Amino acid sequence: SQTIHQWPATLVQPVGSPLSLECTVEGTSNPNLYWYRQAAGRGLQLLFYSVGIGQISSEVPQNLSASRPQDRQFILSSKKLLLSDSGFYLCAWSGGGWEQYFGPGTRLTVT
Amino acid sequence: AQRVTQPEKLLSVFKGAPVELKCNYSYSGSPELFWYVQYSRQRLQLLLRHISRESIKGFTADLNKGETSFHLKKPFAQEEDSAMYYCALREYGNKLVFGAGTILRVKS
After folding, report:
1. Within an 8 Å CB–CB cutoff, is residue B11 touching chain A?
2. Segment A61-103, tens digit of pLDDT
């Protein structure tokens, strides 16, 4: 069966520090992959999505970037974190259909 | 731009009372809408999809194109229904636009 993992579960980082959040999917190949951010009162905002290795689409201009070095690995990065980057980050995948399957999320606090 | 509006941040009802979680959308084409739910300490998961027109855990949602709404309803709330509920609209491809979410609290 398919599973999706995210780590770390929680992270506290100072302003200006780098960021790397990792998401991996097991049990499927060539999934569509997504990064969302959940900020208080704003729902889930799609940040990036990828339909294949090295193919990244950015939905909103921001301080973050994404990469897909392997078929089932999706990484969210930043060179210098801002206070406004704090939030709950969710990774999701979908196969050939419409349903998205979400990971457990990472709580990022930028201090 | 496509938008999904959930006007209530929090909805608090008593056990056994009816529940209606509101969702309105704006979309230029033929919409495809979903309700996702996140129970405490669990992952966000699909609850139901308008195309399937099914009832899941007693919940139903009807797409009203005239009112551009997709409200989630349940006739008798149960304590285990307490969760965060998100309405979502499918864009081209498999991208989803989510509303801000509504916390449902069912009191005993």
Report:
1. no
2. 788 999 999 999 999 999 999 999 999 999 999 987 778 999 9
